[in-house]
Amino acid sequence: MDKLFLSSKINWIIHIIIWIVMFSVLLLLKETKEDIIFNLSNELINVSFYIFIVYLNLLYLIPNYLNQKKIFTYLFLLFLACFLLTPIKTMALHIKLNDFPTYQYKLFEKQTGYFFVFIVISGFTTIGNIVVDWFAQISLRQQLENKNMQSELQFLKSQINPHFFFNTLNSLYSLTLKKSDLAPEIVIKLSDMMRYMLYECNEKKVNLSKEILYLQNYLDLEKLRQGNSIDIKFNIVGSIENELIAPLLLIPFLENSFKHSVNTSLDTIRYVHITLNVNNHLLNFSIANNKSSTVYNTENLSLVGGIGLENVNRRLQLIYPNRFELNILNLPQEYCVNLTLNLTD
Fold first, then answer.
1. Angstrom distance (rounded) from CA 225 to CA 217
2. How many Å apart are CA 258 and CA 309, to the nearest integer?
3. What predicted TM-score, i.e. pTM, was given to this entire model?
4. DSSP labels, 125-159
């Protein structure tokens, strides 16, 4: 970051423009009655020394001392450079004004002013470099955070449970052996789900209607696989049009509910009841399913469901910070999940 001012062709052009503007301002402020060539040559000497102290500071003193936390050494060398350049500049102007003794005499009276001008210009250079470096660090940190977050989201998204697809394929294989009319329907729904995961889910947000269709296909396949052994209900309330949501965010809750319901005893009526309500960009997603009391655990309820729910909870924190509320109720005979999510960006 120490050469950030000079890191591109565009920055070089900006520097040239700044020096041209500074040279023009100094020329306009000149009060001498001499000709334009006299004033141009004088200000050219002044600007040359200013350029020297600026780039000595930018290219050597700041990277080698200030950026290395050698603050006192940096300040000493900066003041020393300004102190040494003052008489050198005075002598250069003195030689140039050899035919103007009146101006030569006044040069020595102005040495203190020359010194402070060097200090001020150096100070502005240092402050400017610190500010630019600070903004660059913030930008770099944000880029790294975004990159890390996207990498983590991709990783979390890739952890969607594959067992469902394996189980569905096994069921499909059994149906094909029986030459069941349900096989083509399973193939179509499974194809729609795979297409959604492979192509639609590469976006940060997808239409809520597409996510719901994915959930509906999942539920339909579960109905086809499990038949009448489970009561599945999916109620949608409110308007889902024009709403966006992070893809594959809700499916882990469904997978978790079916995993629990499978563990129930054979004489128990199994059920998975889902409600999705959208009102004023506020989504409420709730699931209730029965389960065996043997999987009931009164400790650490928020982690019940394993890596699937830990995964989705992490995604919620990354994508919807301070914009969601997740409540999990683990009862002896029933498992309930309630998610409230603010869909407004």
1. 12
2. 13
3. 0.55
4. HHHHHHHHHHHHHHHHHHHHHHHHHHHHHHHHHHT
Is residue 211 within 8 A of residue 245, CB to CB? The reply is yes
Say if strands 270-279 and 282-290 run parallel, antiparallel, or are unpaired.
Answer: antiparallel
Query: How far apart are alpha carbons 159 and 154 in whole angstroms?
Result: 9
Q: Which of 55, 66, 46, 70 is nearest to 125 (CA)?
A: 55
SS3 content of the chain, % helix, strand, coil (to 5): 65, 15, 20
Q: Can you give the C-alpha Rg of the chain in angstroms?
A: 36
The string of pLDDT tens digits covering residues 242-256 is 899 988 888 888 888
Q: If you average pLDDT over residues 167-191, what whole number do you get?
A: 78
Mean pLDDT value across residues 137-146: 73
Give the H/E segment covering residue 209.
Answer: helix 208-226
> Which of 19-23, 49-53, 155-159, 225-229 is predicted least confidently?
155-159
Q: How far is CA 17 from CA 11, 28, 59, 324, in A?
A: 10, 16, 19, 50
Domain 159-342 in CATH 3.30.565.10? The answer is yes
Q: How many CB atoms lie within 10 A of CB 170?
A: 11
Query: Would you place residue 89 in the very low, low, confident or very high pLDDT band (cuts 50, 70, 90)?
Result: confident
Domain ranges of the chain: 4-154, 159-342
